[in-house]
Design a protein that fits this description.
mainly alpha
């Protein structure tokens, strides 16, 4: 496996793990387990930060090795791919500062404000995590990632 595929799979894995911990946090708070909720959501935040670091590393790698900032999708479902990708990217950019704000509010014990904010931040963050894995699957199973890796051989 080349570094391009490894970075791509790492990004997808981190997105999947963030999704799992978001759901654990959601179910914990529904059961009234504030401590378990805080631990799960804290883990989701850390995983999401790791995701961002690996994602940016993958972009740097693409630029340095291939002179590209993105891998182009080469599959048969291009319209569907972009239908998933575009809102994913836009919402990922928009939700990030609100996630940070939600964490800050919880850490400051401002729980009523935290609850009001996460009523819409949580579903958006969950959507971004899930669609991140879907975007990866499009790229992986269309051969788009492998095509980039083989373009230098």
């Amino acid at each position: 496996m080349d570094i391009t595929a490894l970075l791509s799979r790492s990004v997808a894995t981190l997105n999947a793990l963030a999704t799992i911990f978001l759901l654990i946090g959601f179910f914990r708070i529904r059961r009234g387990d504030k401590i378990g909720h805080g631990k799960a959501m804290g883990t989701a935040v850390i995983i999401s930060a790791l995701f961002l670091a690996v994602y940016l590393a993958s972009k740097v790698h693409l630029w340095l090795v291939y002179g590209k900032s993105n891998i182009l999708y080469i599959g048969s479902y291009k319209a569907l791919y972009y239908w998933v990708l575009i809102p994913h990217v836009i919402l990922a950019i928009i939700v990030t500062p609100f996630v940070i704000r939600a964490v800050w509010l919880a850490r400051a014990s401002r729980f009523e404000e935290h609850k009001r904010l996460v009523r819409w931040v949580f579903p958006v963050w969950l959507y971004v995590s899930i669609t991140g894995v879907i975007v990866w699957a499009f790229m992986e199973f269309s051969g788009s990632i492998a095509a980039v890796g083989s373009s230098l051989r």
